[in-house]
């Protein structure tokens, strides 16, 4: 039994000439069908010549080239036009004449080069055909000649419209693809920045502290172990970033990101930063994008604390509310300078800039700055559903 889906797929894979051949054969056979034998386009009032063996010539010239109407549109149109002229001059006037407007539509849609030359050549040929019919005394009046020319011009214009529509759609898809690639590259760049900056900062702080522990082997071993653990977490986070490039990679859920937050806080504590972590609500409700954004907010806040206020008390508060996730990272002491909180400042704020773009894209808000109590606070509010 034939599988229709397999047959349809094989048909779509076949050569374009093969796919266009059935229409050509259908038009070639139409003039021999009883009700259609008297049908045809006639320029003038000459009597119609009955079909005979010679009628195969104009019929074949008009119909069979349609098989190549998309592969070789100019050649197909030229042969069809010649066949139409022979059809009119010999008086057969068959139903195969319908091939001319079909060929014009196809040429208008698929012809890539010398389009103007084709239009001029066809117009000149049409005038010559009208004059030849007029000389034989069977020509159409001027109004009829112009009307039929306008019909043919309309067929060409339909093809041109199809070509432009197809080109506009291709350009739209290209722009969407470019935008998508740029968005993904930006997202990956932000993630790489967040991961590398945080973990490398923590490792530098830990390594600097280890320099002063050479006389205390136990604490030195503990410090070096913390450096190694931070490196392992960096590798794990980098793998998660690379998973963005793999469609088959498992998605992260809110619970996993919640556990990752606790690991992040613990790693920062090992780097010597006193961190108090408070979590409220159920992280399971958070989608992948929302949970990841919340994680990055905490990561950026802790990175700034390690870089600009090492050893100062830092509080991380994550609240999974009814409508939004609220994240707040507050660091006492000097904290980041204003430059680090201002995205436009030269050389600073790149992490906060990318973080704000991520949060805003999800329909949320992000702020970073010093508050009245002297603490530097990074605060974000992200709706559950992301951007609507």
Ordered list of secondary-structure elements with their pairings:
Blueprint: H1 4-13, H2 16-29, H3 56-63, H4 73-90, H5 99-110, H6 115-135, H7 142-210, H8 217-242, H9 254-270, E1 275-280, H10 288-308, E2 314-320, E3 324-331, H11 338-341, H12 350-361, E4 365-370, E5 376-383
Parallel strand pairs: 1-2
Antiparallel strand pairs: 2-3, 3-5, 4-5
Describe the protein's architecture and organization.
This protein has 388 residues and is of the alpha+beta class. It is 60% helix and 9% strand. A hairpin with a 5-residue loop joins strand 4 and strand 5 (376-383). The chain is rod-shaped.
Features:
alpha+beta; five-stranded mixed beta sheet; rod-shaped
Tell the overall outline.
rod-shaped
Question: How many beta-strand runs?
Answer: 5
The unreliable regions are: 335-348
CA-CA gap between termini? 49 Å
Strand residue content: 5-15%
Tally of alpha and pi helices: 12
Widest sheet, order of strands:
1-2-3-5-4
What Rg, in angstroms, do the CA atoms define?
Answer: 37 Å
User: Oligomer, anyone?
Assistant: single chain
Largest sheet: 5 strands, mixed
What letter string, H or E per element, gives the SSE order? HHHHHHHHHEHEEHHEE
Structural class: alpha+beta
Kindly state the mean pLDDT as a whole number? 81
Helicity level, as a percent range?
A: 55-70%
